[in-house]
Amino acid sequence: MFTAVLTAVVVSAFWIWFYNFVPANPPAVARSGNVVTVKPEQAEPVTVAEQVVVGPSGLAIPVTGVKADQLTDTYDQARGAGRRHDAIDIMAAEGTPVIAAADGRVEKLFNSVRGGITIYIRSPDQKWQYYYAHLQRYAPGLHEGQDVKRGQVIALVGHTGDASAAGPHLHFAINTMGPGERWWQGTAINPYPLLAGKKASG
Ligand SMILES: [Zn+2]
After folding, report:
1. How far does the centroid of ligand 1 lie from the alpha carbon of residue 36, in Å?
2. Which of 132, 136, 112 has its CA nearest to residue 122?
3. N or C: which end of the chain has fewer CB within 10 A?
């Protein structure tokens, strides 16, 4: 008699636990390296970086696995014929995931002689533009007009354009945008202090 009651209690407890703690539809999550691919129902697959390093400005360092103290301020470096770099180069192995530094909309996907495969992303308030260059390739399905979230994988690090194959890196720029300014316009500001939380050098 006692055994029967005990069995009933244990079986009931199991089913209560089962229905409360085992999800009916676990989300499909595939892990590879430090990247998690999440497939929401009835939506395009979105890949977000598992570890997003966010600077004091709220911007994510746009290459996975790179920490603030690994960044170098290359904003003021000369780039020949009176040109200034106006960007930060973030060194990383070819094929490292590039993530969106901030939320925004893909305004332009462009292939240029200098920048190679590039992405221009405009902030929701239209006042900022984030530029990613020398990419190896875009994330699958990335297209103009697409909304992206901070930390979302948008491309892979490469050396397209005038970057050296020996030194693959992400060339990352931030522009402030005036009313009506288009993707090729804007005024560059130094991303380094925003990402690294340190004063710009020089
Ligand atoms: Zn550069």
Report:
1. 28
2. 132
3. N
